[in-house]
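Write out this protein's structure.
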Amino acid sequence: MNGLILNESEVEFTAIRAQGAGGQNVNKVSNAVHLRFDIAASSLPEEVKAKLRALRDQRINSDGIVVIKAQKHRSLERNREDGLVRLRELIASAAFVPAIRRPTKPSRSSQRKRIESKIKRGQVKLQRGRVGE
């Protein structure tokens, strides 16, 4: 994550009941996790905070709070870890800085070789005319 460290004390976890099939257990046990992360109150660098707020992601609400619901696994601990992994991936995507592309110019010899190969190819195609006329 480019040297960024996510402080887990800034993340608020709430245990909730998971949706979907699960038999009798689904109505008794709260094993899904709501993860809430306040971007403004976090210890992330300002550039990363601004990029996170600018992301068009449905998990970030208008108040600048990231809300992730993790319910893939059957245990609370695994869902908690899954939510943290997804939060780290979101932060890493905002912190990613693409390399600057420097435009290059082809050298004179490469330009000459390209034109010569085009001329040669054109001459080959000219030789494909009817034979004997």
